[in-house]
Amino acid sequence: MLFRSRTIHGGTDVLNRRIAAMAKNINVKPHYCGTEEHKVLMYTACDLEGHRGTDNKYYLLDFSRVLPPERPASALKMEHLFRLLRPEFLKMYPKPLCSDGYSGFIRQTKEAHEHNRELDEATDYLHNVHIPNFVDDLLTTLHHYKRRRTTAAVSDVVSAPDDDSSAINNLVAAAPRRGAGSLHNFKLTQLMHSRGINVRHAGCILLLLRERLDLRELRLRDAEYRDAQLLLNVEMLARCVKNELRLLLREKMRTIKVPLEQPYCRLVIDTCNMVFGRSSVSTRYWNSTLKTRLMDTFSCHGGLSSLERTADHDMKAAFIALGQRRSAGEMHPLALLFNRLVQCTGLKFEPRILDELERTAGRFDVPRPFDEIDLVDIGERVKHMNIVVVAQAHLFKMKDRKSTRLNSSHWNNL
Question: For 120, 334, 387, 389, which has the most beta carbons within 10 A of its beta carbon?
């Protein structure tokens, strides 16, 4: 543990054993911190804090750097402190890696070069092997996911009365909107995370989609290719708009310093109209602010080619063109983006808005597609670790086992 930036404490034997077991479970490497004269064996990040409470239980604080970093690759200062590898990638990688790589905590130890070299190798493997393999994984997953749409439609048609042709037509038309196989329900972020890939690498994945697929494979997998390209763009653009909106809200808060909701609602609506409306202001916003944020936030310039990175390229028109050959019932690209933005920000709009966007994209043909009365609440989005989902899964599993045992004993008594 770091104390006043000078002294490093290794903790008690009991705490060390527990931290060592945790580190081994996530494939993090034990290492020395400090200097050769005064070095301490650490099992995770040097600045992880361990405390024993008045209840004699141990508590850990500050997990921000427990995961090892990727190799710094940009001009960002202290990049190794926040651009970290995902735990799913660590668990599938064959070697344990050092949490304090590239940091001053290990710089004066003789093992520092080895730790950093191993992180270099892991970063190269991630970008040159793991992410390229994910491209095929994404296309295959999309293929099977879209088959659910067809299966749902066919299943409903089979269950409809034979003499009710109108019911059959309505079922076929409504099947995509019920969610089976629809792109707006595809969990791209969860898929990337489950494969150990940070969303910041979506630009590289998009670039690989464009570069790797030859003409023959494009013909065979054209639908999956277009869907993957659209989903990656939607995810990156939604995050860029979310960050821009939060920045504007913070600036507005510093300016007005009044606890009123109306100015913030107006700001949200004005931003949404600037992003989704059909106007020269919207086009300029996409080609300047949004394009710059996209290139700065995501790897490989957000997947944009050298031509697309120029100010003359109409990024909004190119994005809309991705959905020109979309399947029947699929949402317009701007509707997909709006839907994802609402999920990312916690904005709450009138239900009729979302229903209308599922049916038609006509709302985006005007300069101001949204009005203040359309926004119900700015809301908030609470993020939590995967451990919450895992805990819920274990709870359902235990309930199922308990129910199964009760049913078995009931039948045995009979």
Answer: 334
Kindly report the backbone phi and psi dihedral angles of residue 280, in degrees, each rounded to the nearest multiple of 5, phi listed first: -70, -30
CB-based contacts of 310: which residues, under 8 Å, 6+ apart? none
Given a cut of 90, is residue 287 above it in pLDDT? yes
**What string of H, E and C letters represents the secondary structure of 110-171?**
CCHHHHHHHHHHHHHHHHHHHHHHHHHHHHHHHHHHHHHHHHHHHHHHHHCCCCCHHHHHHH
> According to the model, what pLDDT value does residue 288 have?
93
Q: Kindly state the helix (H) or strand (E) to which residue 32 belongs, with its residue range.
A: strand 31-34
- The DSSP call for residue 288 is I
How far CA 317 is from CA of 126, 153, 211, 352, 410, in Å, comes to: 33, 32, 21, 26, 64
Q: How far apart are CA 315 and CA 217, in angstroms?
A: 26
Owner of token pair 């095929």: 136
158-200 pLDDT per residue, tens: 444 444 444 434 433 444 444 555 888 899 999 999 999 999 9
Top mean pLDDT of 252-256, 381-385, 386-390 is at 252-256
Quote the tokens at residue 182: 């629809």
- Rounded-to-integer distance, Cα 170 and Cα 271, Å: 37
The single-letter code of the amino acid at 251 is E
Pairwise CA distance, residues 149 & 108, whole Å: 58
Query: What is the SS3 assignment for 411?
Result: helix
Classify residue 393 by its DSSP letter. Answer: H
Length reported for the chain:
414
Tokens for 10? 């290794």
pTM of the shown model: 0.81
- Cα-based distances in Å from 31 to 7, 71, 79, 199: 16, 18, 21, 29
Give the range among 40-54, 113-127, 163-177, 281-295 with minimum mean pLDDT. 163-177
pLDDT of residue 406: 57
Q: How far apart are CA 68 and CA 71, in angstroms?
A: 10
CA distance 290 to 240: 7
Helix (H) or strand (E) holding 39: strand 39-42
d(CA 245, CA 285): 13
